[in-house]
Sequence to fold (228 residues):
Amino acid sequence: MRACGSCHYPNGKGRPSNGSVSDLPVAYFLQAIQDFRHGVRTSAEPRKTNLGLMIGIAKAISPEDAQAAAEYFAAITRTPWIRVVESATAPKTHIEGFIQYAIPGGSTEPLGMRIVETPENVEQTEPLRNPRSGFVAYAPVGSIRKGEALVMTGGGRTVACGICHGADLKGLGNVPGIAGRSPSYLVRQMYDMQAGARRGPGAALMKPVVEKLTNDDYVAIAAYVSSR
Fold:
């Protein structure tokens, strides 16, 4: 099967097209493998074909190898990887391999109510896949503050994230940390749980949490959480 590090990098920091696996609780990691294997963790976006690769890996991996991988990534302490910048504009991008790459020339466009996550250095990300070259996420002006209100209090539409993910959002017990992870990944997971494409034990707990969230809420929450 394909090595974990080919997509998630040897340090587990990952790319917007997949997700970071470093510093995940061993039990959470192993449950994720089971969820992929048994078809309860899929995608609400049928064009996201790389999910099929992960499902194939989950079906092929032995329990011993899964345990070894889980312990390896759990031992890696997370360090800064995503730089969140509030802006009214973002670089014009094209999508390749599920990643938004800035178009050469430095041209920009209005950002609107979205997040554009792109490599800090295109060449270092692809083809070199340098595990020391991270990403920058352009978020709407004021979104971090709006996201903080939702994350810390629920804002009347959800519950405070820290109840389960820890006051610092770095995890609590077998619940994973979410601070500093890719906003693209975070929004995909919230959307998949809301849409019912992700149905494992953890998703069942999250379903009522994300039930009333809007796209604008997703943007705000991701901007804040990724900036931590």
